[in-house]
Design brief:
The structure holds 2 protein chains of 2 kinds.
Chain A (H helix, E strand, L loop, with lengths): L1 H7 L10 H21 L2 H5 L3 E3 L3 E2 H19 L5 H28 L11 H7 L8 H23 L2 H19 L1 H10 L20 H23 L3 H22 L2 H26 L8 H14 L12 H20 L7 H20 L4 H4 L12 E2 L2 E2 L3 H23 L2 H11 L1 H6 L4 H27 L9 H14 L4 H17 L6 H16 L7 H5 L10
Antiparallel strand pairs in A: 1-2, 3-4
Chain B lengths: L10 E10 L2 E11 L4 E5 L6 H8 L7 E6 L2 E2 L5 H7 L1 E3 L12 H8 L8 H6 L2 H20 L15 H13 L5 E5 L7 H18 L2 E5 L3 H7 L2 E6 L2 E6 L1 H6 L1 H11 L16 H8 L1
Helix pairs in contact in B: 3-5, 3-6, 5-6, 7-8, 10-11
The chains are: A mainly alpha, B alpha/beta.
C-alpha cells in the first residue's frame, strides 16, 4: 500500500557488537560527523552566531550536541550497568573529540586547503577554543571536552524517564530561545513593560549568559511539574495534548501582533503550507493516495486569481479577490477530479510516478507556446491586486497572515468534520486495505475521486492566497519541490493528523525560514532532521493513530 | 423479491470456475445455501474453498459460472455492489484496518447504512448527527454482541488475535447482511474459544436471522454448528450432505488422507493451518 511505502521504507536493523567496540564505533561516527561538519564550512558559518552571548556559538553547540547524543546513545543501549555505560560514553566522546583534534593538527601541519577549502587557519583557530592555535593544550582539550560532554550525555541517558525528559526539555528550551533570539526578543519588546525587576534575557545576538541556566531550570522544572500533575490528577494523555493544542492556537493567533513583519511573513508562509498540507492530508494522509503532482492544484488556484484580479494585459477580469477565491477553489477541484481519473487504477509506487508526471505536465503546459499568450509563459502574470476587506486593503504581512490563517481554520474545520464522517472513515479504510474496504460496500472510484477533488480544492485556496500575497505568479513557483515539501510536512507531522500538519509546517517551513542567515546550511539540518526522524519516530511528531486510540487505563494492558 | 413461496436458496452457485493463468483453482462448483442455515465448507488445504469465497464476493472475478443471491444475479458486479446486495465476509488471515480503533472498524462496516451526504457532514446537519449517533450505538452494541465491548477504543493492531477475529465478525455483521461468509473463523482458537465461537454463530443465525456460510477445518466446530456441509477436494465439490452423512462418508476421509500423502494436487499454501489428518479421522469418528 502506498501509505505504508511512505512510512515504512526506512526500517533499519542493527548488528550487535561488544559494548566497548560499539562505544568506539559511535564515537567514530560522531567524530566523522564533526569533521564533516567542519570541512563543509558549516562550522565557520555558524561560529559567528552566538547562542549564549560571548560564551557559546551555534557551531559549538551543534558539535556539543553531536557528542552529547553519542554519549546518550551508548548509555541508552542498555546492555551494561551504569558505571560501564558511563565509561562507554566517555570513550565515545574521547574518540569523537580526538577526531576533531586530528583535523586541527592536520590543518596546521599539512596544507589541506588545496582540496578542502574550509580547512583554513581560521578553522584551526576557531577549533582551538581560545587556546594557542594547535598547541598541545588546544589539541588535548578537544578529546577531554568530548569525553566530558559524552559522559554528560551518558549520565542523562541513564536517568529515569522523568529526569531524562526534564534534562532534554531544559536543553531544548535554551537552544530554541538562543536560536530564535530575534523572534523572542521582538516579542519581548512588544510586550507591555513589566513593573519591577526586569530580567534581561537577550543580548544583542544571543541569550545572556545569566539567562541560560535560568531558562534551562525553567524548562526542566516545567517538564517535571507537568509529569507530576498529569500523574497525580490521572489526566489522560488526550487532556495533556488538548492543553498543548490550546496553547498552540493561542500562540498562532497573537504571533504577528507581538513580533515583527519578517516573522509575520514567515508565519504566513507556514499558514499557506498548512493549507496545502491539509489538502494533501486528505489525499495521502486519509485516503492513502500518494500525489507528487500536488503543486498543480496550487498553480490552478494561483493562476485563476492572477487572471481574475489583475490589471495587467493578460487579465481576463479585474474583480474582487473574494469573487475570484471561490472560482479558484472550484477550478482547482475540477482539476483534481480530472487529475484523479487517469490514475484511478494505479496503486502504490506507480501512483507516485504517475502523479509526478501529471504535475509536471501542468507546469510544462503553462510554459508552452500554446498557452503562453494566455498565461504569460515564463514571464508569468504580474500586478495582481491585493484583496481588500471592508475597504481595507490587505497588504501588510500580518493581515495576509490572518487571511491565510482564516482559510486554514475553515479548511481544518472541514477536514475535521469529513474525517469524522462516513467519507473520512471510508478514506481511512481505503488507505488501510482497499480490497477489504470495497468488500464492505465502499465505492473505491467515488471515494478516490472525492479525495482528489477536495485535496485539490484546498490546494487551490492556498494558491489563491499565494497569488494575492506575492502579487505575481510565475511557473517557476510551482516546482516539484513544493509537492515534496508538502509531502515532507505530512510525514514529519504524522500522516493523517491535522495538528501534525501544523507541527510539520512549522518545523519544515517556519524554522528554515527563520534560520535564513545560515544560507544553504539550514538544509543540512533539514536533511539530518528528516533522517533522524525516520529512525526515531517514523509515525510523525503528532501521530494520528495514537490520538484516536482511547484506551481506558484499567484495561490498557489487559 | 426476498420471500418466494417455494423458499428458494438464498445463495445459489452454478458451474463456478476460476483459473489463475493456466492453473484451475476451482471448476464445476455448485452450491446452494438455504435461507437461515449454517452451511459449512470443508476440504483439504488448497482445495479451493477460499477461492470460491473470493469469487462469490467478487474479490476476484470468476472465470465462468453463475451466482445468484435471493434470485438476483450478482456475478460480474463489482465487490462493493455485491456487498450492497447483502453479503459480508471475513478473511482467512484476519484483515482488519490495523491503524483504526475497533469502534472505527465497526463504523466503516456501516458504510452502506449511512445516508447523510458530504455537505450535510460538513454543515453538521441534524440528520448527520442523528445518523452518526445511531451508528455509534449500533457499533457498540455489535461489539457487545460478539463479546468485546471493552475493546472499542483500542487500535485493531494492538488487540489479541482472538478479539481481532471477533472484531472482524462484528465489522461484517454491522452492515446488516443477509449472508455472512466466514473463512476459518476458528483458526488458531483453543477448544474453549471454539465453543464460544459456535455459540456466537448460533446467535448470529437465531437472533440476527443471518444465513452463515463458513469454511472451517476444526471438525468439532463444524459438526456442532452446521446443518449442511459441502466438501471440496482439488477444486471441485466432492460431496454434500448433513453432518451425519459426511461423517459416514469414506471418500471424505480418503480425500484428507490422500492429500496428506502428497500424491497429487497443489501444495497447501504456506502459513495456513494444516489439520493433521490422523486427528481429523478421530474427530469425525
Ligand atoms: N490469487 C491467486 N493466484 C494464484 N493462485 C491462487 C490464488 N489464490 C489461490 N490460488 C491457488 O488456488 C488454489 C486454491 O486455493 P485456496 O486458497 O482457495 O484453497 P483453500 O481451500 O482455501 O485452502 P486452505 O484450507 O489452505 O485455506 C491453491 O493452489 C492456491 O495456491
Ligand atoms: Mg483458504
Amino acid at each position: 500500500m502506498s501509505f505504508n511505502t511512505v512510512t515504512s521504507s526506512f526500517k533499519v536493523t542493527r548488528r550487535r557488537r561488544a559494548p566497548l567496540a560499539e562505544a568506539a564505533r559511535v564515537g567514530l561516527i560522531a567524530g566523522a560527523a564533526l569533521v564533516a561538519f567542519a570541512l563543509i564550512g558549516a562550522y565557520a558559518a555558524m561560529d559567528k552566531r552566538h547562542v549564549v552571548e560571548d560564551l557559546l556559538t551555534l557551531s559549538q553547540i551543534a558539535c556539543g550536541l553531536m557528542v552529547f547524543a553519542a554519549g546518550y546513545a551508548t548509555a541508552r543501549d542498555g546492555r551494561s550497568g551504569p558505571a560501564a555505560a558511563l565509561l562507554h560514553g566517555l570513550v565515545a566522546g574521547a574518540v569523537a573529540g580526538a577526531c576533531l583534534a586530528l583535523l586541527v593538527w592536520l590543518t596546521v601541519s599539512v596544507n589541506l586547503r588545496a582540496t578542502l577549502v574550509a580547512a583554513s587557519p581560521a578553522l584551526a583557530r576557531a577549533l582551538s577554543l581560545g587556546a594557542p592555535v594547535a598547541s598541545t593544550q588546544a589539541l588535548a582539550q578537544l578529546p577531554v571536552l568530548g569525553a566530558l560532554l559524552a559522559g554528560l550525555g551518558a549520565a542523562v541517558g541513564l536517568l529515569p524517564p522523568a529526569g531524562r525528559h526534564a534534562m532534554t526539555t531544559g536543553l531544548g528550551v535554551v537552544l530554541v530561545a538562543g536560536l530564535f533570539r530575534d523572534v523572542f526578543a521582538s516579542m519581548l519588546d512588544n510586550l507591555p513593560d513589566f513593573t519591577g525587576p526586569e530580567i534581561e534575557l537577550f543580548g544583542p545576538s544571543g541569550l545572556n549568559p545569566g539567562a541560560a541556566p535560568v531558562l534551562f531550570a525553567a524548562g526542566a522544572a516545567f517538564s517535571l511539574l507537568r509529569r507530576r500533575l498529569t500523574r497525580r490528577a490521572g489526566v489522560p494523555r488526550s487532556g495533556a495534548s488538548r492543553l498543548g493544542s490550546a496553547l498552540l492556537v493561542a500562540g498562532v493567533l497573537v504571533l504577528p501582533l507581538v513580533t515583527n513583519d519578517f516573522v509575520a511573513q514567515v508565519a504566513m508562509l507556514v499558514a499557506l503550507y498548512m493549507l496545502m498540507g491539509m489538502g494533501l492530508n486528505i489525499e495521502l494522509g486519509l485516503a492513502g493516495l500518494v500525489d507528487l503532482g500536488f503543486v498543480a492544484f496550487f498553480a490552478v488556484g494561483a493562476y485563476t486569481v492572477a487572471l481574475m484580479c489583475s490589471s495587467g494585459p493578460l487579465a481576463v477580469a479585474d474583480v474582487s479577490f473574494w469573487l475570484a477565491l471561490p472560482v479558484a477553489i472550484v477550478l482547482a477541484a475540477c482539476a483534481g477530479l480530472l487529475f484523479g481519473l487517469p490514475v484511478l487504477r494505479v496503486r502504490g509506487d506507480y501512483l507516485a510516478m504517475a502523479t509526478l508526471g501529471l504535475g509536471e505536465i501542468i507546469r510544462v503546459l503553462v510554459l508552452s507556446d500554446a498557452l503562453g499568450p494566455y498565461l504569460g509563459g515564463s514571464q508569468g502574470i504580474i500586478e495582481i491586486r491585493h484583496p481588500s476587506l471592508f475597504g481595507l486593503e490587505l497588504k501588510s504581512p500580518a493581515s495576509l497572515y490572518y487571511l491565510a490563517l482564516a482559510l486554514a481554520a475553515v479548511v481544518a474545520f472541514v477536514s475535521w468534520r469529513l474525517q469524522h464522517a462516513k467519507i473520512g472513515r471510508a478514506w481511512l479504510a481505503m488507505r488501510e486495505d482497499e480490497d477489504v474496504a470495497q468488500a464492505l460496500g465502499i465505492d473505491p472510484v467515488a471515494s478516490k475521486l472525492l479525495a482528489y477533488t477536495i485535496g485539490a480544492a484546498f490546494a487551490g485556496a492556498a494558491g489563491a492566497v499565494f497569488a494575492a500575497l506575492i502579487g505575481s505568479v510565475y511557473p517557476h513557483s510551482f516546482q516539484l519541490l513544493v509537492s515534496i515539501n508538502v509531502l515532507a510536512i505530512l510525514v514529519i507531522g504524522g500522516l493523517g493528523s491535522l495538528p501534525g500538519v501544523l507541527v510539520g509546517a512549522i518545523v519544515l517551513i517556519g524554522l528554515p525560514e527563520l534560520l535564513r542567515e545560515f544560507g544553504e546550511f539550514r538544509y543540512l539540518f533539514y536533511g539530518i532532521a528528516l533522517v533522524a526522524m525516520m529512525h526515531v519516530r517514523a509515525e510523525g511528531l503528532w501521530p494520528a493513530a495514537h490520538a484516536r486510540e482511547n484506551v481506558q487505563p484499567e484495561n490498557a494492558h489487559a | 423479491m426476498r420471500e418466494v413461496s417455494t423458499s428458494p436458496p438464498l445463495l445459489e452457485v452454478r458451474g463456478l470456475k476460476k483459473a489463475f493463468g493456466g492453473m484451475i483453482a476451482i471448476q464445476n462448483v455448485d452450491l446452494s445455501v438455504a435461507q437461515g442455515a449454517v452451511h459449512a465448507i470443508i476440504g483439504p488445504n488448497g482445495a479451493g474453498k477460499t477461492t470460491a469465497f473470493n469469487c462469490i464476493t467478487a474479490f476476484v472475478p470468476p472465470t465462468s459460472g453463475r451466482i445468484t443471491l435471493a434470485g438476483e444475479r450478482i456475478d460480474g458486479l463489482p465487490a462493493h455492489v455485491v456487498a450492497r446486495h447483502g453479503i459480508a465476509r471475513t478473511y482467512q488471515n484476519v484483515r482488519l484496518f490495523p491503524n483504526m480503533t475497533a469502534l472505527e472498524n465497526v463504523l466503516v462496516g456501516q458504510h452502506r447504512r449511512l445516508h447523510a451526504t458530504f455537505w450535510e457532514a460538513i454543515a453538521g446537519s441534524g440528520r448527520f448527527r442523528r445518523e452518526e449517533a445511531e451508528a455509534r450505538v449500533r457499533a457498540l452494541d455489535m461489539l457487545d454482541f460478539v463479546g468485546i465491548p471493552h475493546r472499542a477504543g483500542h487500535l485493531a493492531r494492538n488487540m489479541p488475535y482472538g478479539d481481532q477475529r471477533r472484531l472482524e465478525i462484528a465489522r461484517a455483521l454491522v452492515g446488516g447482511p443477509r449472508l455472512l461468509m466466514l473463512d476459518e473463523p476458528a483458526a488458531g482458537m483453543n477448544p474453549t474459544e471454539g465453543r464460544a465461537l459456535v455459540d456466537l454463530i448460533e446467535r448470529v443465525r437465531d437472533r440476527l436471522g443471518v444465513t452463515v456460510v463458513l469454511i472451517e477445518h476444526h471438525m468439532r466446530v463444524v459438526m456442532a454448528v452446521a446443518q449442511r456441509i459441502t466438501v471440496f477436494d482439488r477444486g471441485a465439490v466432492l460431496t454434500e450432505g448433513s453432518p451425519a452423512e459426511i461423517q459416514a462418508d469414506e471418500r471424505v476421509i480418503a480425500a484428507y488422507l490422500g492429500r496428506r500423502s502428497g500424491a497429487s494436487g497443489p501444495a497447501p499454501a504456506p502459513l495456513e493451518p494444516v489439520v493433521p489428518a490422523s486427528r481429523l479421522e478421530a474427530r469425525i469418528a
